[in-house]
């Protein structure tokens, strides 16, 4: 008997070592992913809170138009007329395009130029590394650059006092600051002193005057209320400046997720954060339940041991404390493995998702509390069955190992169904997102984006018309068009209160339609003689409710235009948006589009470069291919797809480990039954069916559970798109089949081994 | 029905090599009742497993119903065994999760017999084993003797020609043991060949022939009918 027990114990230990290892790996993988997701979400939710007084900093936005670009002169008023305002600071971020900056000897591209003044150092926690004078902006022509921009432009040379031409603005560098932290919505490489009105970068036209605009940030005095300040400002602001009617004070840390306001700030995607959080929670649940199941399965084998201990006088307290110590140890080991995993994998995550997450953040209190809570949940939940068991203690049952039989069945099928559902959900998500990206990339844009090059000609860099003529000398260049604004970002809106929809306009030359390959449905192209004539798109016909369209007149501004042609709708704005009404007029402009021959792209590019260099001085060629430009509009979705795929893979791995654990558990426990069945004529196939049948059933149930949830979630997500792919049945079917395949692959090897075993071995009486 | 020549079985584990059977020549004709005796570890179960086509011999030949089966693959052995051999074990080997009825039904399921036919056959054999009132019970709700009767019911439900019993009374008291032996004798009288491993002289006396095994070798054979005659 002793020898037998010993033998069983050793055999169990061998089995359990793999078994426990699987449990720990699954839990650690899931838990580390959750920690990383936690770090990401935490970062997203604490943007701008690095500023010492972030909870007292607000930005003014126009209540009606949601515009944050307000009259620059407001700054004086805010500073002087309102007692509740401690500081007011103009910050205009021009982050949309890379800027060309010139030193005496070279030129480089730099991202993000900010027009602000010395008050920014009172308001924001910006660290000055080096400065010429007490004020970082020494005088009106001063600029300040960040540490990394200084490195990029000047290398090891001290930049202080150096000349720097930013676009057309000639400046002297008077200070170097630390880079803006990663969790800042305000980002830039170069600051220009906006006390100099030439450096303000932005202007507007209203009420017959041109004036500079900027974003106004204020620091509220301590103990003052935001609401009452808002009220005071709104009561009086109109008397100072007519251009602003009513404003809202937007808290600094609300800026990051507010994408309705047009500004140059760095923005996040709240729905992405939500999706990722949900995925994180699901993975956490998945791994916790998985782990609890492992712990319980291990304990299940010990029921007899508990029985024997009790027979020999152990108290419930002895048993429970022994058990808790055991579980606690396992959880601790798993947690330490998770930490090590995070430490090693974080750099890769940061690279893939362009983040700067730090493991140190885990030592902040929100993390410590949630980590302790999750681990405590694991320990506590996994002790509940033991507690129930002890309360119903009965020697007979314990020694015969017959407790748990029914309950175990329920628990052991609930878990895999839950896991498989999550797997399927994530797979459906990945498939749908990929499908949407594919759809969008291959959607007919209404113009031909292939072999089409865009060149931006800076103001006065060269004469666009002679440039165009020179380009056309190359036989590989088929067509060249000049336009104001370019497809993908036409921002010239026709604002008129008469319409309750947005309408846009673009100035083009007479080669535009042919170059872009836009289809003219009716009428004719615009020509140089057209001063009061225009072409509209189909969306405009609908929106303006025009009937006999050709020859009709519309009046978007002061001037009236006669419609001479109608073009088929084409995507001229961001592709997430519906195609809106567009008015196309004749005009020569500086945006050059080049239609090229598909065969000689490399040599054609060389030619374009040469022409550019010949016609400009010290000016880099700024170009972009339209197909890449439009494809890159799906960057956000691609990032989400990548994240989803990664999480799906991790969830699948955890699930596989869970299923594997299940099949090991089942085949160990059923080895006697398998033997008996084989003795009574069961073939290997019969046994395989018996063992795998449950897994197939679970996949089917999971499919039924996951489908409606996935359908709901994906329809919701697709609502973000004006043009969306359909949710086909095959996406769900594919996810189901794929999950079934994974499940079968995971369990088949182990169940085949179990089925192959000679019944003589499992039935041996000694 | 059973004819082995120079049969040996060698078990190899990492550390040791055990010769469980050594040059066994055994001949059992149809309708015989044979008891195999011998000390623990002498190879009785190993021999029974080979006879019952659960295992292959390492050397030698084995003809079952005139067909050489010593080198068959597992799937072929399963095919040969199905419906032809019934097993009874010392520890009953019933499946705890299945009812008495379902346990007895098992061999019929793998013979692909229809549900109604199965019901008829199982009910009949359970009646015969005096277990008809316990069809819905689970094995652990039964006494040892009852469990063994269910196991015998399962062994005979498909009307096999051969029943192999490995110490069928080893876990039973004498009253239950005698009952089991009576059942086996009755089955044998009806024409079923029985090969039984036992430690008990009382049980062995039910057999026509007693084979004594020692260290994997047949040392003596006693033919009881010869004595009787
Ligand atoms: N599967 C096996 N692996 C290794 N050794 C075995 C195996 N089965 C039996 N043996 C060994 O073979 C010998 C005979 O075993 P067995 O036939 O079970 O004896 P008996 O049934 O007469 O007690 C014993 O020494 C036993 O340890
Ligand atoms: Mg034996």
What characteristics describe this protein?
heterodimer, A: alpha+beta, 4 domains, ten-stranded mixed sheet, six-stranded mixed beta barrel, globular, B: 229 residues, alpha/beta, six-stranded mixed sheet, binds adenosine-5'-diphosphate, binds magnesium ion
Verbal overview:
Chain A is an alpha+beta fold and 766 residues long. In chain A, 49% of the residues lie in helices and 17% in strands. Chain A has 21 helices and 22 strands. Chain A is globular and about 100 Å long. The termini of chain A are close together. Chain B has eight helices and ten strands. Chain B has helices spanning 44-51, 74-81, 100-110, 115-128, 144-156, 174-189, 201-204, 224-228, and strands at residues 2-12, 17-28, 33-37, 59-64, 67-68, 85-88, 162-166, 193-197, 209-214, 217-223. In chain B, the strands form two sheets. Chain B has a six-stranded mixed beta sheet, with helices on both faces. In chain B, strands 2-1-4-5 form a four-stranded antiparallel beta sheet, covered by helices on one side. In chain B, strand 9 (209-214) and strand 10 form a beta hairpin. The longest helix of chain B is centred in the C-terminal third of the chain and has 16 residues, at 174-189. The model of chain B has no long low-confidence stretch (mean pLDDT 92). The A-B interface holds A 400, 402, 405, 672-673, 675-684, 686, 756, 758-760, 763-765 and B 45, 49, 54-55, 74-75, 78, 81-83, 87, 89-91, 93-97, 106-107, 110-111, 140, 154, 166-167, 170. The complex binds adenosine-5'-diphosphate (ADP) and magnesium ion. Adenosine-5'-diphosphate is lined by residues 11, 13, 18, 20, 40-46 of chain B.
Write the topology of this structure.
The complex is a heterodimer of chains A (766) and B (229).
Chain A: H1 2-45, E1 57-62, E2 70-71, H2 74-81, E3 85-102, E4 107-116, H3 120-123, E5 128-131, E6 142-146, H4 147-154, E7 163-166, E8 169-177, E9 190-193, E10 203-206, E11 209-220, H5 226-240, E12 247-251, H6 270-300, H7 303-311, H8 316-352, H9 365-391, H10 395-400, H11 405-442, E13 452-456, H12 464-471, E14 477-484, E15 504-508, H13 512-516, E16 520-523, E17 533-537, H14 538-543, E18 553-554, E19 561-567, E20 582-586, E21 591-596, H15 601-615, E22 622-625, H16 626-631, H17 635-669, H18 671-679, H19 684-718, H20 729-756, H21 759-762
Parallel strand pairs in A: 4-9, 6-8, 15-20, 17-19
Antiparallel strand pairs in A: 1-11, 1-12, 2-11, 3-4, 3-7, 3-11, 5-8, 6-9, 7-8, 10-11, 13-21, 13-22, 14-15, 14-21, 16-19, 17-20, 18-19
Chain B: E1 2-12, E2 17-28, E3 33-37, H1 44-51, E4 59-64, E5 67-68, H2 74-81, E6 85-88, H3 100-110, H4 115-128, H5 144-156, E7 162-166, H6 174-189, E8 193-197, H7 201-204, E9 209-214, E10 217-223, H8 224-228
Parallel strand pairs in B: 3-8, 3-9, 6-7, 7-8
Antiparallel strand pairs in B: 1-2, 1-4, 4-5, 9-10
Helix pairs in contact in B: 3-4, 3-5, 4-5, 5-6
Bound molecules: adenosine-5'-diphosphate and magnesium ion.
The site of adenosine-5'-diphosphate (ADP) has 11 residues of chain B, from strand 2 and helix 1.
């Amino acid at each position: 008997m002793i020898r037998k027990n010993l033998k069983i114990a050793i055999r169990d230990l061998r089995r359990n070592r793999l078994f426990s290892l699987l449990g720990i790996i699954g839990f650690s993988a899931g838990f580390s992913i959750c920690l990383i997701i936690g770090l990401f979400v935490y970062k997203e939710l604490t943007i701008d809170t690095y500023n010492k007084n972030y909870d007292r900093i607000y930005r003014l936005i126009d209540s009606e138009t949601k515009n944050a670009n307000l009259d620059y002169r407001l700054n004086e008023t805010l500073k002087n007329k309102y007692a509740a305002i401690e500081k007011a600071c103009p910050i205009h971020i021009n982050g949309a395009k890379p800027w060309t900056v010139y030193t005496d000897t070279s030129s480089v591209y730099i991202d993000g130029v900010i027009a602000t003044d010395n008050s920014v150092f009172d308001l924001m926690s910006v660290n000055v590394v080096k400065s010429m004078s007490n004020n970082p902006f020494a005088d009106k022509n001063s600029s300040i650059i960040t540490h990394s921009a200084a490195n990029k432009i000047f290398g090891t040379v001290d930049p202080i006092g150096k000349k720097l031409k930013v676009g057309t603005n000639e400046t002297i560098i008077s200070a170097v600051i630390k880079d803006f932290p990663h969790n800042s919505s305000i980002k830039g490489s170069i600051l220009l002193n906006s006390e100099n009105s030439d450096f303000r970068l932005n202007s507007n036209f209203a009420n017959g005057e041109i004036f500079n605009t900027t974003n106004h940030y204020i620091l509220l005095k301590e103990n003052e209320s935001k609401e009452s300040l808002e009220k005071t400002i709104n009561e009086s602001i109109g008397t100072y400046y007519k251009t602003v009617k009513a404003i809202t004070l937007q808290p600094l840390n609300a800026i990051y997720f507010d994408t309705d306001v047009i500004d140059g700030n760095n923005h996040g995607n709240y729905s992405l954060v939500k999706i990722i959080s949900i995925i994180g929670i699901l993975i956490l649940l998945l791994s916790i339940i998985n782990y609890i199941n492992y712990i319980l399965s291990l304990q299940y084998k010990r029921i007899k041991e508990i029985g024997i201990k009790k027979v020999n006088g152990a108290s419930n307290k002895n048993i429970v404390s022994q058990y808790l110590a055991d579980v606690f140890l396992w959880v601790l080991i798993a947690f330490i493995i998770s930490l090590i995993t995070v430490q090693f994998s974080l750099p890769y995550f940061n690279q893939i998702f362009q983040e700067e997450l730090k493991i140190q953040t885990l030592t902040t209190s929100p993390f410590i509390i949630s980590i302790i809570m999750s681990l405590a949940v694991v320990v506590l939940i996994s002790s509940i069955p033991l507690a129930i068991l002890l309360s119903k203690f009965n020697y007979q049952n314990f020694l015969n190992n017959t407790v748990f039989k029914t309950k175990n069945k329920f628990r052991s099928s609930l878990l895999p169904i839950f896991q498989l559902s999550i797997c399927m959900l994530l797979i459906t998500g990945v498939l749908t997102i990929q499908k949407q990206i594919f759809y969008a990339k291959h959607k007919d844009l209404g113009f031909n984006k292939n072999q089409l090059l865009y060149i931006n000609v800076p103001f006065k860099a060269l004469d666009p018309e002679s440039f165009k003529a020179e380009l056309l000398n190359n036989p590989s260049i088929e067509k060249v068009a000049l336009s104001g604004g370019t497809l993908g970002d036409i921002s010239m809106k026709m604002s008129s209160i008469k319409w309750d929809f947005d309408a846009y306009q673009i100035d083009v030359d007479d080669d535009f339609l042919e170059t872009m390959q836009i289809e003219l449905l009716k009428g004719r192209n615009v020509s140089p003689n057209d001063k009061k004539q225009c072409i509209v798109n189909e969306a405009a016909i609908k929106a303006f409710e025009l009937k006999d369209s050709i020859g009709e007149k519309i009046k978007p501004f002061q001037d009236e235009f006669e419609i001479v042609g109608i073009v088929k709708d084409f995507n001229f704005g961001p592709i997430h948006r519906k195609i809106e009404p567009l008015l196309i007029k004749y005009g020569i402009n500086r945006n050059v589009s080049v239609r090229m021959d598909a065969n000689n792209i490399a040599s054609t590019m060389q030619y374009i470069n040469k022409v550019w260099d010949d016609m400009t001085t010290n000016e880099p060629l700024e170009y972009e291919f339209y197909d890449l430009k439009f494809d890159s509009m799906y960057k956000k979705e691609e990032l989400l797809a990548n994240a989803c795929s990664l999480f799906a893979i991790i969830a699948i791995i955890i699930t596989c480990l869970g299923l594997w654990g299940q099949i090991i558990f089942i085949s160990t426990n059923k080895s006697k039954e398998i033997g008996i069945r084989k003795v009574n004529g069961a073939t290997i196939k019969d046994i395989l069916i018996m063992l795998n049948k449950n897994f197939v059933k679970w996949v089917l149930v999971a499919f039924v559970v996951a489908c409606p949830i996935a359908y709901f979630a994906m329809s919701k997500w697709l609502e973000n798109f004006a043009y969306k792919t359909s949710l086909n049945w095959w996406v769900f079917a594919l996810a189901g089949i794929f999950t079934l395949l994974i499940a079968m692959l995971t369990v088949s090897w182990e169940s085949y081994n179990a089925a192959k075993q000679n019944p003589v071995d499992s039935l041996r009486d000694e | 029905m059973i004819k082995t020549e120079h049969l040996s079985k060698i078990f190899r584990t990492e550390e040791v090599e055990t010769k469980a059977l050594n040059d066994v020549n055994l001949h059992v004709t149809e309708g015989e009742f044979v008891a195999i005796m011998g000390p623990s570890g002498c190879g009785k179960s190993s021999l029974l497993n080979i006879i019952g086509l659960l295992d292959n011999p390492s050397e030698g030949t084995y003809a079952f119903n005139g067909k050489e089966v010593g080198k068959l693959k597992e799937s072929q052995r399963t095919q040969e065994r199905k419906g032809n051999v019934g097993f009874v074990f010392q520890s009953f080997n019933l499946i705890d999760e299945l009812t008495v009825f379902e346990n007895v039904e098992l061999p019929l399921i793998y013979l692909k017999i229809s549900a109604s036919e199965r019901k008829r056959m199982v009910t009949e054999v359970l009646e015969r084993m005096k277990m008809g009132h316990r069809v819905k019970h689970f094995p652990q709700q039964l006494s040892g003797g009852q469990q063994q009767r269910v196991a015998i019911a399962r062994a005979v439900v498909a009307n096999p020609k051969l029943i192999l019993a490995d110490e069928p009374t080893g876990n039973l008291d004498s009253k239950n043991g005698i009952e089991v032996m009576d059942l086996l004798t009755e089955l044998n009288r009806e024409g079923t060949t029985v090969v039984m491993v036992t430690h008990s002289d009382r049980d062995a006396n039910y057999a026509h022939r007693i084979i004594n095994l020692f260290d994997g070798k047949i040392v003596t054979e006693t033919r009881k009918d010869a004595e009787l005659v």
